[in-house]
Amino acid sequence: MVTPNSKELKLPENSLLVSKTNTKGVITYCNDTFMEVTGYYEEELLGQSHHIIRHPDMPQSFYLLMQRRLKQGDEFLGFIKHLTKNGNYFWSFATITPSFDIDSQVIGYFSASRCPASSGVSYFEALYQRMVDEESSNTDQLGVETALQILNDDVQDKGGYNEFICSFYR
Prior knowledge:
The longest helix has 20 residues, at about 120-135. α4 (about 120-135) runs antiparallel to α5 (about 140-155). This protein has a single domain, classed as Beta-Lactamase. The protein is globular and about 40 Å long. The protein has helices at about 30-40, 40-45, 60-70, 120-135, 140-155, 160-165, and strands spanning about 15-20, 25-30, 75-85, 90-100, 105-115. The protein is an alpha+beta fold. A 5-stranded antiparallel beta sheet has the order 2-1-5-4-3.
């Protein structure tokens, strides 16, 4: 496991990190930009869980929300803090969509991540910290659900989750 440090890597404005996973979150494809930014070689990524770049500052409840939406066949948008191979971190704005077979069954997921709006990073960094604090204070599933409710409550009066996320790019 990689130990995080406090060095931030800023994504270039025009970068696009692309990855694909199977339904279990195992990486089946990543583009050159994904490898360059994360510091991993293709052979280190393929066959690994996408959690290989998960930063511990990200709340579990965020991923629970993402799983729920994707399993319903919905697109998911989010500001995500990632961990590189050398312990640095970077923020991205990710669009994750399910991939379907000819029978409309989900066979995997496609993620395209780009440089995030700094206002979104500031906002979600503070929100995620509140969520992580809640998860830490209640180490059972209730803590994760309560943290998820913090997120839902925070964006409810802002037009809903997707509308609010997208407002950082309008």
